[in-house]
Amino acid sequence: MTVESILTFLAVLILLKGLAGALEGLRYHRYILDCLATRTTPWMPPASVILPCKGLDYDLEGNVTALLQQVYPFFELLIVTADAHDPARQVLEPLAARFPGHRVRFITAGHSDQRGEKVHNLIQAVAEADTASEVLVFTDSDSRPHLLWLQELVAPLRNESVGVSTGYRWYFPAPKNFAGLLRSVWNGSVATLLGNHSHNFAWGGSMALRKTTFTAARVLNYWEHSLSDDYSLTQAMKDARLRIHYEPRCLIGSYGSCTWKELV
Asked: Would the pLDDT of 101 be above 80?
């Protein structure tokens, strides 16, 4: 086989991959349009929103303010850190005091050598969630949800065949930050993998499930020695033969700059 034939073969593979990517993009576009053309029947039971924090994310106060401004009848916000002296607490405790009508609780999870820090934080927060809550919702401190995010994420769970309702992130890079722009483009291609099929995955920054589903699918067992919350939860849903619903209205923004080191 000559060098020319090898290069031609590789070029054909690249072209086929590009064509497959374009078709996936068109499929995703149709799915978005179909979803936005219909409205999910509202279902807003009491919910516990769990927010793990570590350090000071870009505009952390603005991100958590967006959570506290959700249009939803009753939810509690559990802000969990590994350490009681985490810098995030110093910013968020005064912020919570400005929303006296909301139930905001701060949880110190401590450290564990059995699992990832974020997973350990989530396990401790789930254990302390209000017993009246019917739904557990998970998000990230670098995410900026819109005002209807919570009700639109929870609504698909009305259908009990749905194990998890999930959104995804869209990076909005800071001006003149080329590494951040590359991250946004690269990450955007992942979003188009989601849709109306059986290959969806849950994303930890925007996911919700019934508390009964969390227990029945034995998510805590999957988290016990895990480094990743959403990969493990995705596997738990697949093993339980429960559907992972992608809700495009819950594609939420993540703002800030990105260094080359972070991109790599």
From this structure: yes
